[in-house]
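Tutorial handout. Part one gives the primary structure; part two gives the three-dimensional structure as tokens.
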Amino acid sequence: MSRSAHPAGPRHADVLPEGHYTAPPADLNVLDPKVWARTVRRDEQGQATVGGIGVARLAEEFGTPAYFLDEDDFRARCRAWADAFGRDADVFYAGKAFLSRAVVRWLDEEGLNLDVCSGGELSTALSAGMPAERIAFHGNNKSHEEIERAVSVGVGRIVLDSFQEIVRVAHIAQSLGKRQRVQIRVTVGVEAHTHEFIATAHEDQKFGIALAGGQAAEAVRRALSLDGLELIGIHSHIGSQIFDMAGFEVSARRVVQLLAEVRDEHGVELPEIDLGGGLGIAYTSADDPREPHDIAKALKEIVTRECEAARLATPRISVEPGRAIVGPTAFTLYEVGTVKPLEGLRTYVSVDGGMSDNIRTALYDAEYSVSLVSRTSDAEPMLVRVVGKHCESGDIVVRDAFLPADVAPGDLLAVPATGAYCRSMASNYNHALRPPVVAVRDGEARVIVRRETEEDLLRLDVG
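Part two.
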């Protein structure tokens, strides 16, 4: 069904001032499976469904804005990564992408390990029953209390990020009568083709210890000399939302070179290498992510080749997908509040959420797709900017997209691929209430992270 069109902004991309589209899609009613969770489709009435439940029912029961997570899709992606790397490698889900106790239980049941980077994430993992030995602890400035708890509960590895932290972890482990397994995070000087704020392997940034100037080699010397530490390997992470494997090849080559130097100087072959995560997903139809089996095959071949050249035994590989698992499994559902045409420019479509539930567009200039999901429409495409309700001109959800020209207040819009970082980075800006996360599976929906209430806000305000 459709509504009559109203006057609106331009229809064609050749008038788009700064956007990225070259033309509107052939059919705005099609939900591209590349960017949507696996069970999302349209029913006979034209509304989108996930896990067999229509968005109108979900909006009525759980409200908007809300994140809806396809549990079957999440579990399937966990299995795909585990199968791709097999028993001779380790897959650590990067909890910073999105973490809840339900997610921790799914990871445990599907056989994945977990990477945390704060005391809060560690607490969530332990409270949901993740075995401590399957947890890795990251972070560039872990507190004394965080390290002490991690060592006390027996996390499988702590990734050391500075010379001070090498001493700090060793001291805490010795005081507890433990020997903590650790890796050293190195920055390898690789330029990952990604946004400056999510590129993490060049020297001028806060993470890791540089290979340049022999700093990483010195970190290895210190870690090997301290009784409280068991150095098991080297960690490298080159950035996020990466599609090109060339950066991983250069990174692996430089890390293996360090392993060879360690062998030559200390007579020790470190048994593990962690290549981090950062693999990209499809936010729009233009993105072309690689499948887990292709990624696993490429990484294993790179490491094996470099180790053979250096006459090293091939170490056990670890990877840390977060976004690549949870990102595509969820979408954010909004209700349209106002539609404001700007003649000769575009039409602004305001929804009931915004930068408080998805800061990535403002922070990283991230691109997203958006679809009208409460109905289909035969109206012509209209160039729009989907914006939120916050008191900021930068409160943009989708910078440039096409929607049917008859989009109107009360319609439901959905932005796919919002499973990663959106809820994790959500805020109470303008005292907004952070949305719920609702897991959907086999015709049933349940809240796994509830919506905040005004009582929640006031409870923290002790003034």
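Part three, for discussion. Residues 216 and 388 are 45 Å apart (CA to CA). The chain has twelve helices and 21 strands.
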